Amino acid sequence: MIFDKKLFAACAAMLSTPALAETEIPFALDWKFEGPSAPYFQALDAGYFAEEQLSVTISEGAGSLNAIPKVATGAFPIGFADINSLMRFLDQNPGAPVTAVMMVYDKPPFAVVGRHSLGVSAPSDLEGKVLGAPPPDGAWAQFPIFAAETAIDPEKITVEPVGFPTREPMLAEGNVAAITGFSFSSTLNLKRLGVAEEDISVLLMADFGVDLYGNAIIVNTDFAKDNPEAVTGFLGAVAKGWKDAIASPDTAISALMERNPAADAALETERLQMAIDANVLTDYVIENGMGGIDSDRMASAIKQTTSVYEFQNEPDATLYFDPSYLPTDGSLMLK
Question: pLDDT category, 8, cuts 50, 70, 90?
Fold first, then answer.
């Protein structure tokens, strides 16, 4: 055997070179480990985060507003939350180090979900009825805009504050006539509880003049300034996870089931597909890629918000969304 000094030196150099340290990123979801969270686990299991030298851990949330204070305080550097609630949070907490950097639900899943058999088939049917609404719910936060756009009188609706665990059961049992929630969550939870699909009425707020965006990836801005490449890498990995989920929902759901083995795989696959079809893979996203926003639509969304919420400070879209961390390597194109 011939001893190759150059080869030996090269191998020794490789062994002596320390591995690049991974950046630890705890990621705060908005909700439980259900179908729409599968793309993040797919990105984790496929090694997309690791390719960016990121060590990501994913935590459940307790509503679309839940991740905002977690990220603003720095407890989590990155989270997933309702951008409309973020606007109000920043208005009430000027200078808080948090902003959105990647739109995920281009068409928001905010909905009023009722039952035809209980007399709710259209927005006007809500008058004179009982509406169950969890206070931390992102859909409930936008209900005043929905009411204004559909010309219904909130004073004629009895609002029952409910908890997330009891929301769909109360509607299934007929204790309320409708609830606020995300379309894909409430619809499939009701089906699981035995409510016939033809009895479920889904009033998607975006179909009734509500020109808002939905949930986005949010970051702690101090963390982002110190770790811009990590944030961009994280967003690229997320886009790859969603692209995989669109191409093969079953594969993404398998990654989810590893973390939530008690879940119903078929139901969660249906829930994920609903989110893809109605909220993520919109015409805008197909044409422009995932993650960005349209400035005119954002201006309209802010205007609608001002119609039902009195800002303490002048609204400023640049405070709510910063596209500068989005990858530019083509990874945002989902089709």
Answer: very low
